[in-house]
Amino acid sequence: MAAKGWIEVSDTYCKGCEVCLSACPQGVMELNMSHLTPKGYHPAHTFKDGCTGCAICALVCPDAAITVYREITKAAAPVTATA
Predict the structure, then answer these.
(1) pLDDT digit string (tens) for 46-73?
(2) Where are the domains of the chain?
(3) Who's near 61: CB < 8 A, 6+ residues apart?
(4) What is the reported pTM?
(5) Whose CB has fewer CB within 10 Å in the chain, the N or C terminal residue?
(6) Which fold has domain 5-70?
(7) Residues 6 and 46 sit within 8 Å (Cβ to Cβ)
(8) Which residues make Cβ contacts (< 8 Å) with residue 29, sequence separation at least 6?
């Protein structure tokens, strides 16, 4: 089962530089062309499912505009053999 995650992009800090888009290994990010930040930029966002919460986008963001969240799933209990 693949990890699931999501991101939040700050309208205050995102300047639409697209560095995160090219760094996303899942290819699920794009600029939101239907939204402008208060400074007049099109911010990044996820446009389809598939984010794993790897946080590469946040690491490469020069303005620290991305917060990454990852869903925590409880692992199944290990199966032990009894004799």
Answers:
(1) 999 999 999 999 999 999 999 999 987 7
(2) 5-70
(3) 19, 20
(4) 0.82
(5) C
(6) Alpha-Beta Plaits (3.30.70)
(7) yes
(8) 7, 20, 21, 44, 45, 46, 47, 57
